[in-house]
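1st attempt posting a full record on here, be nice pls
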Amino acid sequence: MKLLRYICVFIFAFQSNAQISDFEYINFRKADSIALACKDEGLDNLSQLSQKLTSGLTTDAERFRAIYKWVCTNIANDYSLYLKNNRKRYKFNNDSEKLEAWNELIKKKIFYKLRKDKRTICTGYAYLIKELSNLANLNCEIVHGYGKTSTTNLERLDAPNHSWNAIELDGKWYLCDPTWASGIPNSETNEFKFYYNDGYFLTNPQLFAINHFPVNNKWMLLEEALAPSFETFLAAPIIYGKAYKNLTIHSEPKEMHNTIEKHDILTFKYQLQKAVAKEDISLLIDNGFSNRKIKPTSTHIENTSLTLEHQFDNNGFYDVHLYIGDDLISTYTVKVKS
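the predicted structure (as tokens):
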């Protein structure tokens, strides 16, 4: 029994480290160039598309990369359809028959727009990644759950609202989010702009869990001690797309909203993808009337470990934004009281 428990713990710990750094020995340039060369391909024959994307590559990681990169750079996010789906689901939340009817209708809309216009929402992205991967004999799954961004209304987050993928490579499972990696929809105009973010490809599960919460906990890919509860997930800070390009782990503060005493120090801890200069680290502090970019009270960098401390000497309520260079990484609120 002890041996079995040890094996299980080892497997979970092994999985929790499944991330892009496992493939540092692979240059994905060839896979990316194949994805670019197939830019004008349609979705009428998925088997043929999968073969074109993967046949010239030698490793499963490269084959998956070509599929993933093609989807992220060729399939547009239909933000209007996403908003409509959210409105309908909220409207029919207490009417199971109407909700079921809407779900059936939206499925047809999602896949019609995907095949006809190469536009879709998260479900379509995840479906296409899975289908193309399976056709290439790669074991890929769709993961349904909750996604949290800076625009998410947490009070209405009472049902799964997002989908992403898990992919098995060399006997380990990895996480990726093709929807958020593909680009940025403009929330005012609903227009979508392709802007590939490589940070969502084989992401460290600990960072992924800050704003992804799967319905099935096994897709956390985290050992039990590290896996957040749903309440912890809701309370977590806001992290942005640029966080995925700069961080591997976000450790502290663990919550979005923080209350401290006047003259207290708030600590921020992260693991970086690569070392940065102290001069590149700054905090933008907004008190509701004005904002200013400042250096933290102290900044400590050791290899890829980053620790900041900032002392708040005035009462008030502050929005605190972390920047690395020009990249907005995360946001917190700080209530300072006497």
